[in-house]
Write a structure and sequence with these properties.
The structure is a homodimer of 451-residue chains. The first copy, chain A, is mainly alpha-helical. The first copy, chain A, folds into three domains: 112 residues, MgtE N-terminal domain-like (MgtE N-terminal fold, Alpha Horseshoe), CATH 1.25.60.10; 110 residues, CBS-domain, CATH 3.10.580; 179 residues, SLC41 divalent cation transporters, integral membrane domain (Tetracycline Repressor, domain 2), CATH 1.10.357.20. The first copy, chain A, is 62% helix and 7% strand. The first copy, chain A, contains 21 helices and six strands. A three-stranded mixed sheet of chain A has the order 1-2-3. Chain A has a three-stranded mixed sheet with strand order 4-5-6. In chain A, a hairpin with a 5-residue loop joins strand 5 and strand 6. In chain A, helix 2 crosses helix 4, helix 14 crosses helix 15 and helix 19 runs antiparallel to helix 20. The first copy, chain A, is elongated and about 95 Å long. At the A-B interface, helix 11, strand 2, helix 12, helix 14 and helix 15 of A face helix 11, strand 2, helix 12, helix 14 and helix 15 of B.
């Protein structure tokens, strides 16, 4: 690019796979990228553009529209697969969208406006409308001829959808079935097609759609309306994106970070501060409640000095076992392995787990606590072995409380129709922190004379 | 099945898609499932079996081999795609494997033994060896004929691999390219094929392979040896499984649960207790260290009673901001967005973030602390507003310490060649807990007269 050598640039763009070209162009700015894209033929241009990062696509569109070159970019935008086009237009500024949409060919324009109507996160918003649809009376040879004509425009040739005159879905024909019958060209596709087609509705949640595709090992799944009319398909590459997005979102939620649109380094500093700040604030208020709880028991700490030592231990035992339980149940609910009806089983499991793990930690804790308080600054103040039993009893109860809360709260959230992932680790931990202090001081008051 | 009506059973098995049949059979035990499978024709039988849950497959194999029916099941096992066969044999007991392997046809036996040689988690262990390989001198029509003959045996017809006599990979032909040229049957495939093929090595990590497939939107990726000889392919359905597995594994690690083979309810109670117990134990010892730290400062608490109130608040502020940072950096490293070379940028970001968020929490904390200590049981003991500045100063420092540790530790783990996800939230929180107490008491000693 530095040498302005268009011929060798074109050679480079044509020789490599589009995804590779996009990778090599990562370092270029919008103007340079556009220069490279311009030397490529239109078909390749749109492929390479499709592999750019969303931010780069947006920047390029902004730069060109800003430079009065909206015409040039509208051709590129029109050639994008419909679902990618809608994603792109969601990211660019509203006035740019208003400038671009009228420049699209009528068909693409109508499609874009319709797809923009589906809320983000639904099957409708990630589907593409460019697939092969054929009537059922064709033979294998006719179908292959038809597909070969449409192959350039559609997003996938791996599935062909057989529809009636009203676009109602009748069946599905895989490329494998077609190719297998390549040597019987006169067979009718209606005899070959699979009639029991699994579909989703346009308003279905994209996560549920992804699970379905993964469970059935599909390459794509058709999206239909209530009358089983074919609206579009969701393809395997979008499914993988959904899984990656959801994994990141769940991980961030579990750590108390509101979902981010982009990655860590790409998110604007202030957006990141906001995503973290709101949750950190919520958790801070939960922690403030522990201070109030401790204030109530202030006198007890005055009289029995060594109780202070084990506050963090007691709190973290409950919090840690609680987040383990919450995470296991949330993952189980996500994967569909745990259902609401299983709540008795989950709670029994968590009760048993809490008793078992709590007993283990209690034994270790008792031994360590005895050793620790022997090193007291004023040895005559050392607690008796009996008084120290407060520590293991508290640990046992706090761990059981942790596993039960951690197991129950995500189920409760699911029951209430909320995302169980909201009942994330720091939230569960905050609740258990306060319970831990109350349990600790109640046990101490009951067991230690003079409190 | 209750009515022993084979004809209608067969109708049911034949009418629905294999994945659906497997779903309906979820409730059946091994013997009943085998009865249903037996009425189906062998091809359909193996498809339905392929959609069973791994535990059900294993149970069925065990039941049949146990009943002396190893011959019957070996046919089924032989018909499975090579990668699924290896997965299954990994799950069943060793003596069953020894009984089954000799019963496999020689080709399948050799394949199975070879694939079993690749360690779990590598590209080699998830690849299949059943793909279409053609020499480069064929025409489109010859290629289609060849593919139509092989279509039943291979796992995917969507990519055809063009190889030389030594099985060295020359190029890749997609079904789309073939179908597009259906009307030019005499064109040579060597003129159509893509020569710049992205490949992976058999020993590459499956997570890296999955990222590559997702980045390039591939349906499958070829696995080659050092001489670029084609060994197999990893297909899109295995890639989705890898993403799902990794997401669950990361979520569990982040909550301090060792990875599980199966889901929450399916895992044996004792295995689950072990997976949780080891991490809970590690975190418990970290928490015990806080007790030692507090013991060192015992005298301080005796003299300045209200310091106790804010121990959980200080600890949790650091822990929460630390796990936020750790999770963001771990996700960034996983997605390839953050690289080791970015460490300066990450640390600057986290320093700024810590100062900003810490200052916010400090202001709220100072106000709340003033309010709180006004309600002291003996009002004449209330701390002065100046003394209370200990709380916000500590919060600020602890939050900065949290964000810096949370950002740095995953990078350090990555640098040391360890999985950054091991530097999970409870681990980071444990380290910051201790740092929090030390910072708290150091600030208090410096600022409060008479400590």
């Amino acid at each position: 690019i530095a040498t302005d050598d268009d011929a060798s640039l074109r050679e480079f763009v044509d020789a490599l796979m589009p995804a590779r070209v996009a990778e090599f162009m990562e370092g270029l700015d919008a103007v340079e990228s556009w220069r490279v894209l311009q030397v490529a033929d239109p078909e390749r241009r749109v492929e390479v553009f499709g592999y750019f990062e969303p931010e780069k696509q947006t920047a390029l569109v902004h730069a060109l529209v800003g430079a009065g070159d909206a015409d040039a970019i509208s051709g590129l935008v029109a050639d994008l697969p419909a679902d990618d086009r809608v994603d792109l237009l969601r990211d660019v500024d509203d006035h740019v969208v208003e400038e671009l949409i009228p420049l699209l060919p009528p068909d693409d324009r109508r499609e874009t406006l319709r797809l923009r109507g589906f809320p983000e996160g639904t099957a409708g918003s990630v589907m593409t409308t460019e697939m092969v649809c054929l009537p059922e009376h064709l033979s294998v040879a006719e179908a292959l001829t038809e597909i070969s004509k449409q192959a350039q425009e559609v997003e996938t040739v791996y599935y062909t959808y057989v529809v009636d005159d009203d676009r109602r879905l009748l069946g599905l024909l895989s490329a494998r079935q077609l190719v297998t019958h390549y040597l019987n060209p006169n067979q009718l596709i209606s005899e070959l097609m699979q009639r029991d087609v699994v579909t989703v509705l346009a308003m279905d949640d994209q996560e549920a759609v992804a699970e379905k595709v993964a469970d059935y090992d599909f390459l794509a799944i058709p999206v239909v309306d209530e009358n089983r009319r074919l609206l579009g398909i969701v393809t395997h590459d979008d499914i993988i994106d959904v899984f990656r997005e959801e994994a990141t979102e769940d991980a961030l939620l579990a750590a108390g970070v509101a979902p981010l649109e982009n990655g860590y380094l790409k998110t604007h500093w202030f957006t990141l501060a906001y995503s973290r700040g709101i949750w950190l604030g919520v958790m801070f208020f939960a922690a403030l409640l522990t201070a109030y709880a401790l204030l109530r028991y202030e006198e007890g700490f005055d009289k029995v000095w060594w109780l202070v030592l084990f506050i963090p231990l007691v709190i973290s035992s409950g919090g840690n076992s609680g987040s383990q339980s919450a995470t296991l149940v949330i993952r189980g609910l996500n994967d569909g392995e745990v259902r609401l009806e299983d709540w008795r089983r989950v709670l029994w499991r968590e009760l048993a787990m809490g008793l078992f793990l709590g007993a283990g930690l209690a034994i270790v804790g008792y031994g360590s606590a005895l050793l620790l308080t022997r090193q007291a600054p004023e040895p005559h103040l050392s607690p008796t072995s009996y008084e120290m039993v407060v520590v293991p009893v508290t640990i046992l109860l706090v761990v059981v409380c942790g596993t039960l809360c951690g197991g129950a709260l995500p189920l409760l959230f699911q029951k209430l129709g909320l995302d169980p992932a909201l009942m994330s680790n720091p939230f569960v931990a905050g609740i258990i922190d306060i319970a831990g202090i109350v349990i600790y001081m109640t046990v101490a008051t009951a067991m230690i004379a003079g409190m």
